[in-house]
Design a protein that fits this description.
single chain; alpha/beta; 7-stranded parallel sheet; 19 helices; 18% strand; globular
């Protein structure tokens, strides 16, 4: 009899990680059936009736969640019904804590014996460490991608295994010996439409500031999809359009060609570390979301490289601090000051090994199979 695993992922990065895990599970030659909900990559691996809901699920910010509350409530109860009806050997929840932690709690209450595994830890250590003890009651196992998380969760009674960061394999495949262009600045405005709309105008104005001092500078923009590339195109002034080259799905290549970058907070900051591209971190959200986050977040830094280093390795420009003049000043220093560049790169070289070695998806797959054996 085939064993059944029900997956839930709600964002593009989780779709990447989920698909890699599913492929690693397929490679074990165990007879497995994948059901659940995620994105296009997971659906492609799972086949069958797997639901691609990423376009609607991947909203950003407090107001967006409130606005779509009816949709999420309906999807939540539908997921519960399908899990109860299919009786999977395991439920694997991938990141997406607003939905997945509530789902785990509801499943544990309704089906106490259901095996629940969480992959890609929600960053509760940043906003609510007290919740970890509750998570220990809801979850059978946590698979985390940062080593400090395993130590923290295990101390709180939540059985946790560090498997390493799954992005390492993907980035290693795209690593090359491209020579850096001293006149190229990489712009990475994020992977969601709402954050791009907030962040990209700041990047455009920062580029103008930089070109006043360095007229030869060019800018390559990493777009996560064709749809986002169209959004970015609309925000560019026709007179300056020629200064910006928009590239879809080429973030890794840009990070290896660019001399410096400006990167929206998220997984791209760790990719920049891996590719040793000096950068400034930027982030902007709607003000209600920002104020809610300020009340909740208990850590000093937003960017994961800075969290891992426990100091500001890459300068952070968050919300009202994301002013073009200030961002341009920080980027200009990385362009002009070899000592500042090398210092940042040296810090990156200390951070990168903490992400673990290649094979994270395979290690996660073996652990999942051991749980359902």
């Amino acid at each position: 009899m085939a064993k059944t695993i029900y997956f839930v992922a709600g964002e593009a990065s989780a779709d990447n990680h989920g698909a890699a895990l599913m492929r690693a599970l397929r490679d074990t030659n165990v007879d497995l059936r994948f059901i659940g909900r995620g994105g296009p990559q997971m659906k492609s691996v799972a086949e069958g009736s797997f639901q691609n809901w990423i376009d609607k699920a991947g909203v950003l910010g407090l107001w967006e969640v409130i606005k779509h509350y009816g949709y999420f409530r309906k999807q939540f109860h539908e997921a519960l019904r399908k899990i109860e009806a299919s009786k999977p050997n395991a439920v694997v929840l991938i990141d997406y804590p607003g939905f997945n932690l509530r789902l785990a709690a509801a499943l544990r209450k309704r089906s106490p014996s259901q095996k629940i595994i969480y992959y890609i830890s929600p960053q509760v250590w940043a906003w609510d460490r007290g919740r970890i003890k509750k998570m220990a009651r809801w979850l059978d196992l946590m698979l985390c991608i940062f080593p400090f998380e395993a130590e923290l969760y295990n101390q709180s009674g939540l059985r946790t295994i560090f498997v390493g960061h799954p992005m390492i394999d993907r980035l290693r495949e795209r690593k090359s010996d491209i020579e850096r262009d001293p006149n190229l600045v990489g712009l990475f405005p994020g992977s969601r439409a709402r954050e791009v709309r907030k962040i990209f105008p700041v990047l455009v104005n920062t580029a103008r500031e930089l070109r006043r001092a360095k007229p030869k500078l060019r800018f390559e923009v990493a777009a996560a999809s064709d749809e986002l590339a169209n959004e970015i195109e609309k925000m560019l002034d026709p007179e300056r359009r020629h200064l910006f080259e928009i590239k879809v799905g080429e973030a890794a290549e840009i990070m290896q060609r660019a001399f410096v970058g400006i990167v929206a907070s998220g997984s791209a900051t760790l990719e920049s570390v891996y590719f040793r591209m000096p950068f400034a971190l930027i982030y902007k959200v709607a003000w209600p979301t920002y104020f809610a986050g300020r009340l909740l977040v208990k850590v000093k830094y937003l960017g994961m490289p800075n969290v891992l280093a426990e100091k500001e390795v890459a300068p952070e420009f968050i919300q009202h601090r994301a002013k073009p003049h200030d961002v341009a000043k920080a980027v200009g220093r990385l362009l002009d000051d070899p000592t500042a560049r090398q210092k940042m790169i040296s810090e990156f070289d200390k951070i990168a090994p903490t992400l673990g070695e290649s094979g994270a998806s395979e290690r996660a797959a073996k652990t999942v199979l051991a749980e359902i054996a």
